[in-house]
Write a structure and sequence with these properties.
The complex is a heterodimer of chains A (about 625) and B (about 130). Chain A is α+β, with helices and mostly antiparallel strands and about 625 residues long. Helices cover about 40% and strands about 25% of the residues of chain A. In chain A, the strands form six sheets. Chain A has a five-stranded antiparallel beta sheet. Chain A has a five-stranded antiparallel beta sheet with strand order 9-8-12-11-10, sandwiched between helices. In chain A, helix 12 packs antiparallel against helix 13, helix 14 crosses helix 16 and helix 16 runs antiparallel to helix 18. Helix content of chain B is about 40%, strand content about 20%. Chain B has about 130 residues and is an alpha/beta fold. In chain B, helix 4 links the parallel strand 4 and strand 5. Classes of the chains: A alpha+beta (about 625), B alpha/beta (about 130). The interface between A and B is medium-sized, with 15 and 19 residues.
Chain lengths: ~625, ~130
């Protein structure tokens, strides 16, 4: 039995033998410690202290607790066997690993082997000796390896990468967890070479994997290819299989490899390809001009329509910059907007822009620029769309031109009307005045044959000038301020003006206008319109029957419709309908028929935003419907 | 007895002037007439009369459309004069433009607006109007 080395710190005296012993232990990085179960004395050799960074001068441990408190809390339990209450189950030998605090503050891993080397009374344990060895380095490698293994496993799951192997000697197939998952096989599924191969889609895919595997086994040539497999549920999946042969003495004993789910990637790529194809077709054959322009405003691609629009071949166009055929006046606005887009303030814009065709003509377009960005939002390129609106623009200009001409002519006409009416008025006024004087000076002149004719002619001239004035005075509703008018009041006023006729002829007049109705209008026009229609009913009354006039009003959409119905002579609308409201049209051989009345009336109604319609039957009667704008609208 | 002693006609149209004058004579309207062919002439002469203390007209018949100085310009200048005598002013114009009628109302010196042509009846009417306002 080995006698324990007892080092008394108080009277330390190194013997050459113990010196050698210490050096030996130090080189092996082994520390020795002892424990006495009976006295609970602890002895730490300097070799032990060295391991934890101390030396015998600065470390004193008298009890086991002094050491145990330096042990990592996780491993403190390992020292429970030293406790006296557990004597009965004290093992003779034990080994364990534990962490202990190094003098520098770090935890170090040590491996401990201890053994009871003496017993008191040959029964109870007395001295226990322990050897500890620093295994930190080994331990950290072990932990790292564990960590990597775990990392690889997790990565494989995340990346859907599985592994497989075929042991040809024992004909065993192994699938990793991920491989099984990709196959969508149950956890306890055990594949064979045949069932494994049968997962591959029948036809091209299965034939190809079979051939590649056979070649791998026969010649040791590995493979890496994409296939479609069909899961038990019938779902098709794109996978990538890599196979590597393990050769022993020229014979393939094992094939192992990687199994990768690339379904999403392939399908995304397929979709992308379809989308790209669609875009390309749209781009190339679009009826509008399209261009892809890089962030430096250089052409990337232009379509046929654009080339045609600008009159260049694709090659010519690509050799030019957009500034080369932008109309000089439109360059600035484009630059400003482009700068905003580049700054990120704008994502797209639409402007009217002129380009110069190869032949020098101006092409009007609506240009839409949008920025195409990658999935991270960084701008990739511009997409320009040019819509040729030259035809529209030219038409617009023509219309503008025509409008100008029309306005000009209209102005001149109005001017003409004013001058004619004013000057003619003076002259006809003078004629009338002179005739009157002639009559006063020479009363006999009335008997002259020509005098009454002259007077009539002057009277007619006067009336014509009067009408001309009214026409010239007509204004469009845009120039006028319409006000709300009580329709009932105006109708009553007009009726009172023709009251004498009503009394004379014992005419029957039926006024049913709701006094609450209000219309938009001009008072003077309203008076004139109503009087005109009412006097018409009297002028053109039938002498064969008692005249009856019926006035009604009702709401219809945005209008109030005033109807004036008579039982008079009626108008032959088939013959005169289109001329009814024209200038100088009379339809009755009636002495009072002036013809201008309806023309002016219609214009006044239209000036107030209304319209007029007529229904009539010869010798039965006429109904005029006057549409006036409802005030409440 | 005549209502008006001196009538001033400001009009560039000699036919109107002749006619108006004749009718007023027939109606026994006025003793004398002052005739001017445009606003400027009328203004100059009237101004001279005011300065020399001469006899001023009782009534002015004023045309609107005249060369050199039109009726409006005449009114603008005439209202600046300081005159003790009350002078009645009638605008006599062939204008039927409501704008002109409206504008005339802004001049307090303008008593009325008569639309040409003038007739014996109208002259009588004016006479009655003036008599009743006196």
């Amino acid at each position: 039995m080995l006698e324990p080395f007892i080092i008394n710190k108080n009277k330390r005296k190194e013997t050459p033998a113990s010196d050698i012993h210490d050096k030996l232990l130090a080189s092996l990085k082994i520390g020795v410690w002892r424990f006495n179960y009976q006295t609970e004395e602890i002895q730490l050799e300097s070799s032990f202290l060295n391991i934890i960074g101390y030396n015998s001068d600065d470390f004193q441990a008298l009890k086991m607790e002094d050491v145990i408190h330096m042990v990592h809390p996780r491993e403190k339990k390992s020292f429970d066997f030293l406790k006296p209450s557990n004597h009965s189950i004290v093992p003779n030998k034990c080994s364990f690993e534990f962490r202990i605090r190094h003098q520098n503050g770090n935890w170090i891993w040590v491996e401990n082997h201890c053994e009871i080397i003496s017993h008191k009374n040959k029964k109870e344990p007395e001295w226990l000796v322990g050897f500890v060895q620093d295994i930190s380095e080994k331990k950290s490698e072990e932990l790292l390896s564990l960590k990597y293994k775990d990392l690889l496993r997790k990565t494989n799951i995340a990346a859907s990468i599985g592994t497989w192997e075929v042991d040809l000697t024992n004909n065993i197939i192994g699938w990793s967890e991920v491989t099984r998952k990709i196959h969508e096989a149950s956890e306890d599924y055990v594949p064979t070479l045949e069932t494994g191969i049968n997962f591959y889609k029948e036809g091209e895919h299965r034939t190809r994997i079979t051939a590649l595997f056979k070649k791998c086994v026969a010649k040791g040539i590995g493979f890496d290819d994409k296939f479609i497999i069909v899961t038990p549920a019938g779902k098709e999946k794109w996978i990538r299989t890599i196979g590597i042969a393990v050769m022993e003495k020229g014979v393939c004993v094992k094939v192992y490899g990687v199994f990768h789910d690339i379904d999403d990637r392939i399908r995304t790529m397929e979709n992308l390809a379809i989308t790209e194809e669609k875009f390309r077709k749209t781009f190339d054959s679009a009826g509008i001009g399209m261009a892809m322009v890089d962030m430096n405003t250089e052409w990337m691609r232009v379509n046929k329509s654009l080339c045609k629009m600008l009159g260049y071949t694709e090659k010519e166009l690509l050799s030019l910059t957009y500034q080369d055929f932008t109309h000089p006046h439109d360059l600035e606005q484009d630059k400003i907007l482009l700068a905003e887009v580049l700054k990120g303030n704008l994502d797209d814009y639409e402007i009217e822009k002129r380009y110069i065709h190869k032949n020098g003509s101006i092409i009007w377009t609506i240009l839409t620029i949008s920025v195409v960005r990658d999935d991270k939002g960084a701008p990739l390129h511009f997409l320009s769309q040019l819509n040729n609106i030259s035809d529209r623009k030219n038409a617009e200009n023509k219309v503008k031109e025509l409008l100008g001409v029309t306005k000009d002519q209209n102005d001149r006409l109005l001017n003409f009307a004013h001058i004619v009416s004013h000057n003619l008025r003076s002259h006809s006024g003078n004629l009338e005045m002179l005739l009157e004087l002639m009559e006063v000076d020479n009363p006999k002149i009335i008997n002259e044959e020509m005098f009454p004719l002259l007077k009539e002619a002057v009277g007619q001239l006067e009336e014509t000038v009067q009408n001309l004035n009214e026409v010239a005075a007509l204004k469009t509703k845009t120039e006028l301020n319409l006000t709300g008018l009580k329709l009932g009041e105006y109708v009553n006023k007009a009726i009172s003006n023709i009251n004498s006729f009503i009394l004379d002829d014992s005419m029957q007049l039926d006024n049913n206008v709701d006094p609450a109705f209000e219309v938009m209008g001009i008072p003077a026009y309203m008076d004139s319109i109503l009087l005109n229609f009412l006097t018409n009913t009297i002028k053109y009354r039938s002498l064969e029957r008692v005249p009856e006039i019926e006035i009604n009003a009702f709401k219809q959409n945005e209008y109030i419709v005033l109807t004036i119905k008579d039982n008079g002579l009626g108008i032959d609308l088939d013959m005169y309908g289109s001329k009814l409201f024209g200038m100088y049209k009379t339809f009755h051989k009636h002495e009072d028929a002036r013809g201008l009345g309806l023309f002016i009336t219609r214009n006044q109604i239209e000036a107030m935003g209304g319209k007029v319609e007529v229904t009539s039957e010869v010798n039965v009667g006429t109904t005029f419907s006057i549409y006036l704008r409802n005030e409440s609208n | 007895m005549k209502v008006i002693d001196l009538t001033c006609i400001v009009d560039d149209d000699p036919i109107f002037v002749y006619g108006a004058k004749r009718m007023m004579e027939l109606a026994n309207f006025s003793n004398g007439f002052l005739i001017f062919n445009n606003g400027q002439d009328a203004l100059d002469k009237l101004k001279a009369l005011i300065e020399s203390g001469g006899i001023l007209p009782d009534l002015i018949l004023l045309d609107l459309n005249m060369p050199i100085m039109d009726g409006w310009q005449f009114l603008d200048s005439f209202t600046e004069f300081e005159i003790e005598k009350e002078i009645i002013i009638y605008i006599v114009s062939s204008s039927v433009d409501p704008v002109d009628h409206e504008r005339s109302k802004h001049y307090s010196v303008v008593n009325n607006f008569v639309v040409k042509p003038i007739s014996v009846d109208k002259v009588t009417e004016i006479m009655e109007e003036i008599t009743s306002s006196k």
